Amino acid sequence: MIRLLIVDDQELVRAGLRALVENTDDITVVGEAAHGRDAMTQGRALRPDLFLMDLKMPVMDGITATAAIRADPLLRDTPVLVLTTFDDQDDVLDAIQAGATGYLLKDIGADALRAAVRTAAAGESPVTPAIARQMMSRIARMPPRRVGDRQLATLTPREREVLTQVGRGLSNEEIGRVLFLSPETARTYVSRLLAKLSARDRAQLVVLAHRAGLVQ
Question: What residues does the Response regulatory domain cover (predicted)?
C-alpha cells in the first residue's frame, strides 16, 4: 500500500486529489497539509511513502518545502511529486534543483495520476512530455552550460539514444516502443544513465539531455 501525503492550500483541490487517488486498492491518503511547513510536521509524524506537493502555497511554498524535505534526516528519502500548472513554468527547474522527483500538470486524468504516484513511489521519476517542454523552455532562456564532454564520452550510442528519449519526457514503455526495446531493458539503460551521469533521478536526466544538446 502506497501511503500518500497531499499538500495543497486549497481544500477542494485536496479533496479532489484524495478522491482520484484513493479509488484503487494500492494507494491511501494518510494526511493532508495546507502548506509546506505543515507538510514537514505531518511528514515526520506520519512517515508517508510519497508527498504530492503543490508549488504555490502560503507560509512555505512547494519548492522551499521540497528542499527542506531533502535536508531532513527523517524525510530526505521520501519522494516529492510536484503538481504544477502551465503558469508555473519558471518554477519547474527550481523544483528539480530542490529535489523533486517528478512533475504533473494539475489537469492530469485519474488513471495517469495514479500511475504517476505508483511510478514515483517505486523510485522512478514521472516527467510528462508537457513538463519536459516547459523545462526546455526555461533552460533555453538560461546562460549556456553544456554537460561535460567527458561525461558524454562515457555513454554508448544506445545510451545516448535513450537519454534523448528521456529528455523528451518519454516513459520506459514509450522509450521501448521508439527504440524497439522491452520496458525492462529501457529501465536498465535509464539506471545506467543515472549512475554514469551522477544524476539523482529521471528529472535530472531530462535537464542533462537538454544541456547536452540532445533535445532541441
Answer: 3-121
Taking only the tens of pLDDT, the chain with its 216 residues reads 999 999 999 999 999 999 989 888 899 999 999 999 999 999 999 999 999 999 889 999 999 999 999 999 999 989 999 887 755 556 777 777 788 888 787 888 888 889 889 888 887 777 665 666 655 566 555 554 555 567 778 899 999 999 999 888 788 888 999 999 998 999 999 999 988 888 877 877 887 887 777 876
Closest CA to 192 of 168, 215, 162: 162
* CATH 3.30.565.10 for domain 2-126: no
Rounded to whole angstroms, the Cα distance separating 186 from 25 reads 28
Topology (CATH) of 144-211? Arc Repressor Mutant, subunit A (1.10.10)
CATH 3.40.50.2300 in the chain is located at 2-126
